[in-house]
Design brief:
Number of strands: 39
CATH class of the largest domain: Alpha Beta
Structural class: alpha/beta
Strand order of the largest sheet: 10-11-16-17-18-19-20-21
Keywords: Glycosidase, Hydrolase
Shape: globular
CATH topology of the largest domain: TIM Barrel
GO cellular component, one term: membrane
Radius of gyration: 28 Å
Number of helices: 19
GO molecular function: beta-N-acetylhexosaminidase activity
Number of domains: 4
Helix content: 10-25%
Oligomer: single chain
Catalytic activity: Hydrolysis of terminal non-reducing N-acetyl-D-hexosamine residues in N-acetyl-beta-D-hexosaminides
Strand content: 25-35%
Largest sheet: 8 strands, parallel, barrel
Distance between the termini: 55 Å
Family: Belongs to the glycosyl hydrolase 20 family.
Length: 768
C-alpha cells in the first residue's frame, strides 16, 4: 500500500486531520478510514463537497449501480443525487474499462473535478462504491470527501459471510441490513442457512406444510436459555422478539418464514451490491423442521432425536429422495448463482442401520456401510444439482465419501485438517471457515480480533503443508454465524462486529499488506460510524487488569479502552454497573481486597459486556520444601482415557500413558477425547507477584501449590483466563488439569514475572 507522508501523519493522530493555512486552524478534514485496506491509496490536498442535487453519470450497464449508490447515500447521509443528463459527465462518474484481470478491481479518484469510479467489470464498480460509502462522512451536516486516489483489487474471490435464520428468524428487511453491512466491507458471498432442526424458513409451494408447521415452534431450550441470559446479564438484546410470536390453540409459537417473492427481493438486493447468495437447505441431517409436516421422509416415519443428532432423511426410500429433489428444484429457480449448499454435516446414522430400505440400498450399490450410504446420497443429489445447472457445496464431511471434480467444501471442523489436504490435492476448491476462529456466534475473547487479523487462510493449520497448487485451491474464507443464542438483530450485530471487519480485511488484502496497529486505528473510526447509524457492536475488552489480580501492599487499578468515545462505569458491591454508577476517570489506588465490575457505555447509552477484575491482598506464598531425592527435567503428564465434561472427573479415568514435556501443551499426535493431568515444580527467582495465563479448548484448571488459581473448566472454545499470585522465591508446585471433547486439542500455560510486560511459555520444570 502506498500512503503519503500526510496520510501517515493522519493515521498516527488517530482522529481528524487538521488542515492549517497561514497559521489559522481550519475545519478538520474527514479522515480516510477504509476497511478493508486498499492496495494503494494516496491522499491529496483539498476536499470535494458532495451536495444534494449533484448528478451521477454511468454506462448503461451500470444503471443499477448508480441507483444503488444514490439509495445508499440518501440512507446514510441524507444526500439526494440525480441522474446526469444524457451524454454529460456527472459529479460522480461510474465507468467500465479498467484494465485488470481481476473482475472486482476498481480505481477511485476524488479531486476538484468530482468523483470517478472505474471498474474492470460492474462488480469492480460496486467495490469502488463500497469504498466511496466509507469516505462520505456520517454526519449529514458534513459532506466533504478528501481528495484521494485509490487503486484496488481483492486477494480472494470468495469473501463470505454466513447467517443461520433457522435457530432464530430474521425478517427479509433484517437480512437485507445484514447484506448491506457485508457490501460496505466488500464481502461478496452470502451463505443463507435457511433450514435446520429448529425451523424451515423458505416457502416451497409443492410442500406447503414445510412452512405451515415447520416454520413455527414452541420455545425450546435455547430460547429459554436466551431469556435466562437476558436477566443474568442485564441485556434485553437476548430476549425473544415478541413480534415473531403468535398464539395458536393456547400455545405461544415462535418463528417465521420467507415467501418466494421475499426470497427474490433479497437475492436482487444482494446482486445490486455485488453479492451472490448461496442457499443452504441442510440434508440429509438437521431436518426436523421438515419432518414436522412430512415425517414420512425419515426411515421410521417419526421425527426424533438419535444418539447425537436428529433423525435424518431416509436415503433408502425413493419417495424421500424425490422429496429432496423436488424441494431443491424449486430452490434452483429462486437463486441464480451457480452454487447451492447441500449441508450434509453431522448426520445421525443409527436409524439407517436398522432400516430395511437403507440396507437394501447399501446392498444394491455394493456399499460398505452407512458412511458410504451418505456419500451415495451426496453424489445422487449432486447429479440432480448438475442436471439443473448448479454446482454443489457441502460441509467438509462430504470429503469422506469422495468428491466429484466440481464439488466445493466449506471446511469448518478445526479438528479435521485432513479434509483440506485431501480436497485440495484432488483439485477441489475449499472455503476456509474454521469453527474455533470464524464462528462468530462463539463468545468473543480478548485476543480474538487479533487472532482473526493475524490468520493466513492458506497456512491456518501448520500440519496442512500445502503445495503451491493446493494453496491455489483455497478459494477464499468465510465467517459463520450460528444463531442458537442470538435471538435479535442487535445481539447478532454485537456478535459479529468488529470481528467481521478483521475477517473482511484478511479476505481482501495480501498477507504482506496487513498492519494490526493501522487496522485498530481504522476500526476506531468505523465504531463512530456504527454509533451514528445505530448499529450495535461489541466494545473491545477493557485492558489494564487480569481476571484475578494480586498485591501485597497497595494496587493501582486501571481500565483502558481503545475507543475514545466510550465511558466506563464500575461497581465494587457486586451489582451490575448502570448509567448512575461511578464513572471511571483515571487510575484508582486501593489498599484492601476489592472486586470491581467494569462496564463500557457507548455514546447513546448502550451498555456493553461487563468485566470482572478481582483484586486480592495477599502475603507471599512460601516456597515448597522438596524431598532430597534428585528431580528430573520437565513436567510429568498423565494421559487418561476420558470422555467427560469436568476436570474433577479426569482422575477416575483409566491411565493410557505417561509423558515428560518441556511445557504444558498437548503432545503431537494426541487427538480425540483427552484427559490430561500435568504436575511439576518451577523455581521462582525472587519474591514477587507473578501473572499466569491458561488458555484451552475445552476445559482446564490451574493449581499453584495445590491451591486453585484459574478455573477454566467446562466445554468451550479457545478461552484464556489470567490470574496473579504472590510467590516467595524458591520452588513451587504447578498442576494443570485439562480435557478435550474431540475438538482438536488446544492448551497452553504462560506466565510473566513482576518486571515483564509480555507473557511467555512457562518452562524450566522439574519433577520426580
Amino acid at each position: 500500500m502506498t500512503v503519503s507522508i500526510f496520510s501517515r501523519f493522519a493515521a498516527l493522530c488517530g482522529g481528524t486531520i487538521l488542515a492549517v493555512s497561514c497559521g489559522t486552524q481550519q475545519t478538520p478534514v474527514p479522515q480516510i478510514r477504509v476497511i478493508p485496506k486498499p492496495v494503494s491509496i494516496a491522499e491529496g490536498e483539498g476536499v470535494f463537497k458532495l451536495k444534494s442535487g449533484m448528478t451521477v453519470s454511468a454506462d448503461s450497464s451500470l444503471a443499477p449501480a448508480a441507483r444503488y449508490l444514490a439509495e445508499a447515500l440518501e440512507a446514510s447521509s441524507a444526500l439526494q443525487l440525480e441522474p446526469a443528463q444524457s451524454g454529460k459527465k456527472g459529479n460522480i462518474d461510474l465507468r467500465l474499462g479498467l484494465t485488470n484481470d481481476n473482475p472486482e478491481a476498481y480505481s477511485l479518484t476524488v479531486d476538484e473535478n468530482g468523483i470517478a469510479i472505474q471498474g474492470a467489470t460492474p462488480r469492480g464498480v460496486l467495490m469502488g462504491i463500497a469504498t466511496l460509502r466509507q469516505l462520505v462522512p456520517v454526519d449529514p451536516k458534513d459532506s466533504r470527501i478528501p481528495y484521494v486516489s485509490v487503486t484496488d483489487a481483492p486477494r480472494f474471490d470468495w469473501r463470505g459471510a454466513h447467517l443461520d435464520v433457522s435457530r432464530h428468524f430474521y425478517t427479509a428487511d433484517q437480512v437485507k441490513d445484514f447484506i448491506d453491512l457485508m457490501a460496505i466491507y466488500k464481502l461478496n458471498k452470502f451463505h443463507w442457512h435457511l433450514t435446520d432442526d429448529q425451523g424451515w424458513r423458505i416457502e416451497i409451494k409443492q410442500y406447503p406444510l414445510l412452512t405451515e408447521k415447520g416454520a413455527w415452534r414452541k420455545f425450546d431450550k435455547n430460547d429459554r436459555q436466551c431469556m435466562r441470559m437476558a436477566a443474568e446479564e442485564d441485556n434485553p438484546d437476548l430476549l425473544i422478539p415478541q413480534e415473531l410470536t403468535r398464539i395458536e390453540n393456547g400455545d405461544t409459537l415462535y418463528g417465521g418464514f420467507y415467501t418466494q417473492d421475499e426470497i427474490r427481493e433479497v437475492v436482487a438486493y444482494a446482486a445490486a451490491r455485488g453479492i451472490d447468495v448461496i442457499p443452504e437447505l441442510d440434508m440429509p441431517g438437521h431436518l426436523m423442521g421438515a419432518q414436522q409436516g412430512y415425517p414420512w421422509i425419515t426411515c421410521n416415519g417419526e421425527s426424533s432425536w438419535g444418539e447425537s443428532f436428529s433423525s435424518p432423511l431416509c436415503p433408502g426410500k425413493d419417495s424421500a429422495l424425490m422429496f429432496a429433489k423436488n424441494v431443491y428444484s424449486e430452490v434452483f429457480s429462486l437463486f441464480p448463482y451457480e452454487y447451492v449448499h447441500l449441508g450434509a454435516d453431522e448426520v445421525e446414522k443409527t436409524n439407517w442401520k436398522a432400516c430395511p430400505d437403507c440396507q437394501a440400498r447399501i446392498g444394491k450399490y455394493g456399499l460398505k456401510d452407512e458412511n458410504e450410504l451418505q456419500a451415495w446420497f451426496v453424489h445422487d443429489m449432486e447429479r440432480h444439482f448438475n442436471a439443473n445447472g448448479k454446482k454443489l457445496i457441502g460441509w467438509d464431511e462430504i470429503v469422506d465419501g469422495g468428491l466429484s471434480p466440481t464439488a466445493t467444501i466449506t471446511w469448518w471442523r478445526d479438528w479435521a485438517p485432513k479434509a483440506v489436504v485431501t480436497a485440495t490435492a484432488q483439485g477441489n476448491k475449499v472455503i476456509v471457515c474454521p469453527d474455533f476462529l470464524l464462528y462468530l456466534d462463539f463468545a468473543e475473547q480478548a485476543r480474538d480480533l487479533k487472532r482473526i487479523y493475524d490468520t493466513e487462510p492458506t497456512t491456518y493449520r501448520a500440519d496442512w503443508n500445502l503445495t503451491p497448487q493446493q494453496k491455489a485451491n483455497i478459494r477464499g474464507i468465510q465467517a459463520n454465524t450460528w444463531c442458537e443464542r442470538i435471538p435479535s438483530v442487535r445481539r447478532m450485530q454485537y456478535q459479529i462486529l468488529p470481528r467481521l471487519l478483521a475477517h473482511s480485511e484478511i479476505a481482501w488484502v495480501q498477507p504482506e499488506a496487513k498492519d494490526w496497529e493501522d487496522f485498530q486505528r481504522r476500526f476506531v473510526a468505523q465504531a463512530d460510524y456504527f454509533d451514528r447509524r445505530g448499529i450495535n457492536y461489541r466494545v473491545p475488552d477493557l485492558t489494564g487488569f487480569n481476571d484475578i489480580n494480586v498485591f501485597v501492599d497497595t494496587a493501582v487499578v486501571e481500565a483502558k479502552c481503545i475507543l475514545p468515545n466510550i465511558r466506563v462505569r464500575y461497581t465494587t458491591d457486586g451489582s451490575f454497573p448502570n448509567a448512575e454508577s461511578p464513572l471511571y476517570t483515571g487510575p484508582i489506588t486501593i489498599t484492601e481486597s476489592t472486586k470491581f465490575i467494569f462496564r463500557p457505555f457507548r455514546p447513546d447509552g448502550t451498555a456493553g459486556a461487563m468485566q470482572t477484575a478481582e483484586y486480592r491482598k495477599e502475603d507471599y506464598s512460601p516456597a515448597q520444601a522438596l524431598p532430597e531425592k534428585k528431580m528430573e527435567d520437565g513436567i510429568r503428564m498423565v494421559y487418561r482415557e476420558f470422555k467427560g465434561r469436568k476436570c474433577a472427573e479426569i482422575g477416575e479415568a483409566k491411565v493410557v500413558r505417561n509423558y515428560t514435556l518441556d511445557s504444558v501443551g498437548v503432545p503431537s499426535g494426541l487427538e480425540g477425547w483427552l484427559g490430561l493431568v500435568y504436575e511439576g515444580y518451577v523455581e521462582i527467582p525472587a519474591d514477587g507477584v507473578y501473572t499466569f495465563a491458561l488458555t484451552s479448548n475445552d476445559g482446564s484448571m490451574l493449581y499453584v501449590d495445590d491451591e486453585r488459581l484459574i478455573d477454566n473448566d467446562g466445554p468451550h472454545g479457545d478461552t484464556r483466563l489470567t490470574a496473579q499470585r504472590a510467590l516467595a522465591g524458591g520452588w513451587h508446585k504447578i498442576r494443570v488439569e485439562y480435557f478435550d471433547m474431540n475438538n482438536g486439542g488446544m492448551l497452553s500455560l504462560k506466565w510473566a514475572s513482576p518486571n515483564e510486560t509480555a507473557l511467555r511459555t512457562l518452562t524450566g520444570f522439574k519433577h520426580w
